[in-house]
Amino acid sequence: MEKRVTFDNRLLPYLLLLPQLLVTIVFFFWPAGQALYQSLLLPDPFGLGAQFVWFSNFEYLAGDRYYLQSFVTTAVFTFFVTLVSMSAALLLAAMADQVIKGAGTYKTLLIWPYAVAPAVAGVMWLFMFQPSIGVLAFYMKAAGFNWNPILNSTHAMTLVIAAAAWKQISYNFLFFLAGMQAIPRSLIEAAAIDGAGKWHRFRTIIFPLLSPTTFFLLVVNIVYAFFETFGIIHTMTSGGPGQSTNILVYKVFSDGFVGQDLGSSAAQSVILMVVVGLLTFIQFRYIERRVHY
Amino acid sequence: MATISIRDVRKSYGTTEVIHGVSLDVADGEFIVIVGPSGCGKSTLLRMVAGLERISGGTIEIGGRVVNELEPRERDIAMVFQNYALYPHMTVFDNMAYGLRIAGKTKQEIRDRVNKAAAMLQLEPYLERKPRELSGGQRQRVAMGRALVRDPAAFLFDEPLSNLDAKLRVQMRLEIKQMQRSVGTTSLYVTHDQVEAMTLADRLVVMNSGVAEQIDTPMAVYERPATRFVAGFIGSPAMNMLPGTVDRSGIALESGRILAVPEAERLETGRRVLLGVRPEHLKLAAANEATFALGVTAVETLGADTLAHGRFEDSSGDFVARLPGDAKIAAGERLPLAVETGKTHFFDADTGLRI
């Protein structure tokens, strides 16, 4: 039987919903509406007046080489952040799953990075790899590697990917570990008796059974790389050198608040909203079907 | 096909020893059932044979080869788990073929072997299904099929029937027995259910707190239980135990009442013993021939049998007599009962060993 709550007072259910509705309206619908509206305006640099220009902000973006380049940058960045953070987390989880002595300590240590704010993580990595004062940069240079993320685009990209991925490993690790521990021990034992070695068991039993977790993390990681890495980019490279680490979400900020082009910035954030919505839709629509629950 | 030999096998977790030296020789093709209450170490013993638990002491040989340090996959065994442990993302066919694929068999041979096992277990219509689309009994069969196709040296069963309902359990019990007979593979079977143990076993191993208390054929265990524990564990309802002292004319109970038990003559007078009588070895007798009279407190009518529960004046607890189903008995009666000759058991009151 369907469980339904009934209220005697007709107003009460709406009152109870009000706080949540208010939060959603104030922090999501209002800004989203504002962005939509502003994306159709062309304000002057001093914010004194605005002209309604229909879709010319979007038209301009469609022809903007830098904007199109930012799409590619974002794709590369997201792909590697997701790949690195998920595979590292999977490896760590697989190993932690086998640890018996001091398992709690390992887990706690591996979860810690998640408590670090993105900006702090960014600054930390920046210091470690700063070409002139960084500890690790020193050793890299000593090993004969000409490391310079301030001038070299590839180095800069590698650095922000590493920092962003590192920060997300803990989160992925936690879910992978929980997923692995939910797999009945006897399944692994049965496979061991059937003759499967460790790697074969992982490939044919554990990994397929983890697919719901993997899928969930894929969605979460892509959204993370798209949006939540702003702090890391901002503290480490500010989108540079050149435009090489200027991912979409950072470009929204830099064009709008640094470049004072609020109309374009609003148009970009509208596009970003649509892109993430589409990505998530595609993922749930197509990839989820291949998942074994 | 292989023999299994377990010699003084011990298992410790840290400083706590849970299996205190079990020895057992299993002949080729023999069906051994390890039975005992939960926590007695029976599953641990089986898992040590499988290679899923490390062996702390002693040796295990399968087919004449010491396997102590071998990985499960190197031991040439197959195991059926209590929760079936089927791979949920694979079809029935793939579940059964998993081990064969790893062993590098050809596609043709895999198909032949799986089809043969499927035919034997009536699983042919389900080969393309996933485990979740099967009933409990079918899943159990798939688990057996997975063991069967590999044609291993030994089958290990870890309480394979305890997740099934009562009716299915009886049916699957028979099927396991028949399957084992037809392939003739040496089997170790762990259960806590004494009916399963009695019906399946060529020989029984009765375990209690990490010790094998008796290893013998089911009938021998029933007729001559080696210890007080075995006597109470095998047989249903359990054997009645009366503490007492050997007296010239029989057994003197704590209450002072003397039971005339002729078999007690061979024991020295004054020895403190437990007198064991199975409920089914008591019969209604005329008042002058009765060994004792039992004050009936409750009656259970099972149809074929009637169980009369009573109590002696002393602290020996519930006393049960299993009488024919047509016996008309009511609570409150005093029932004159006689023990069938030669059907008494004596155990030492201190050691619990059979005398």
Helix and strand pattern of chain B: EEEHEEEHHHEHEHEEHHEEEEEEEEEE
What order do the strands of the largest sheet of chain A run in, or round the barrel if closed?
1-2
Spans where pLDDT lies below 50 across 5 or more residues of chain B: none
Output the structural class of chain B. Answer: alpha+beta
Largest sheet of chain B: 6 strands, mixed
| Helix-strand topology string of chain A | HEEHHHHHHHHHHHH
Cross-sheet strand order for the largest sheet of chain B = 6-7-8-3-9-10
Distinctive features:
heterodimer, A: 293 residues, mainly alpha, MetI-like fold, two-stranded antiparallel sheet, B: 355 residues, alpha+beta, six-stranded mixed sheet, five-stranded antiparallel sheet, 8 helices, 34% strand
What does this structure look like?
Chain A is mainly alpha-helical and 293 residues long. Chain A has helices at residues 12-38, 56-62, 65-96, 103-111, 118-129, 135-142, 153-181, 185-193, 198-209, 211-228, 230-236, 248-258, 262-287, and strands at 41-43, 50-52. Chain A has a single domain, classed as MetI-like fold, CATH 1.10.3720.10. Chain B is 24% helix and 34% strand. Chain B contains 8 helices and 20 strands. Chain B is of the alpha+beta class and 355 residues long. In chain B, helix 2 crosses helix 3, helix 2 (92-102) packs parallel to helix 4 and helix 3 (107-120) packs across helix 4 (136-149). Chain B is elongated, with a radius of gyration of 24 Å.
